[in-house]
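Lab notebook page, bench 4
Experiment: in silico fold of construct C2
Operator: M.H.
Input chain length: 349 residues
Purpose: comparison with the prior construct
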Amino acid sequence: MKYIPSKLAIRLAVAALSLTPAYAQQKLTISASGGSYDACVKQVYSDSFEKENGIKVVVGSPAYDTGVWRAQQESGKVEWDVATSDPGQLQQLVENGWVLPLDPKLLQSKGGLVDFPGMVTTKDNKVYALPSEIFSIVVTYNSDAFPGEKPRTWSDVFDVKRFPGKRLFSNSVVDFGVLEVALLADGVEPSKLYPLDVERALKKLDTIKSDIAWYDFGTQQIALLQQGEAVIGAGWDGRVKALQKEGVHVDFSPDQAIVKPDLWVLPKGANAEAGARFLRHIHDPQRQADFAKCIGYAPALKGAYSLLGTGQKFTIDPQDLSKVVPWGANYWAEHARDVTTRFNEWLTQ
C-alpha cells in the first residue's frame, strides 16, 4: 500500500527541515584544561549541551597561556567562545578587557554558590567568571617510590633525605602555589601565610632548586608522574584521582592543601550568546554533581552536594576550612605583577 503522509506529518517535516540547517551552522568552541578534565567536560557538559541545544561543541587549544589570549585578542581572531581560567589569570584578563562581564543573576540562581573565600571575582561591581568547582594543590607522590613512610606535609616534600627524587612544581607562580608551599614547608602558619614573604619562600626553594622538574600545565604534570621524571611535589587532586583510575601508582595527602575555585569566562569578540548559554548549562546542581563524581573536585553550587552519594568525599569540605589553606585572592590581586617578575628572575639565576 502506498504511504500518503498526513498534513500534520508534512508540517512537522517542513518545520524540522527549516530548523536543522540553523542548528547545524552553529558551533561552540570551548577551551578547557586538557587531559582528564576535558574528558569529564565532554562526558558531563558538552555532550548534553549539544543534545539539548543543537549546537556543535568543539574543543579548542588550552587557555592557560596568557600569551595566546593576547594573540587572539590583538589579532581579532578569537578562537574560543567560552574558556576556563584560574583566579590569578582572570585578573589579567579583566585588566586587559579580554573577557565579558556575566549576568550577575546567573551566580545567584540554582541555589547559589558555596561560601568560600575568593569564589567570585568582581571589578567595578561586575562579575567576570563563573566558578564551577573547587580544586586543591596537594602533596603528590609516586606510591612505588615510597613503599614505607608516606609524605604528608609540604615539609616532607622539601626533605630530600627522607623522600629522595625529583620534585614537581608549577612555574605559574600566581595560580599554583609554589611560594605558598615553600613557606608552609618552612614553618609558616597557614593563618599568617599572607602577605607572602617572597624572599623567604625563594630561599626555601633554593634548598631543592636543582631537584625540581617544572611544569606549565596539568597534562605536563601528569606526564612527569607517569614517566617517573618526578616522584613527589605539588599536584592537583583531581588529576591524581584520574591517574589512580588508570592504575598508576600515585597518591596524595590532603594535609595543608591549597584550595581555590576553577572558573569559566566569556572571551571578548567571540560568540557570547552561545557561550552564555553554555555557562547556564553547566551552572546546574545535577550536572555539577555528575562532574564532581567524574573529576573529583568539589562542586561550586550548594545544591550539588545533596545529589552526591554519601561515600563521595573531596579534599575540601566547604563547611570546614580548618584543614586547608584558601588561596589568597586579595593578596594576588595586588601583587601578581611584582611577584611574578621577582620569581622569574629567581628562576633564571
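Observations: Residues 1-5, 7-22 have pLDDT under 50 and may be disordered. The CA atoms of residues 135 and 144 lie 25 Å apart.
Next step: discuss at group meeting.
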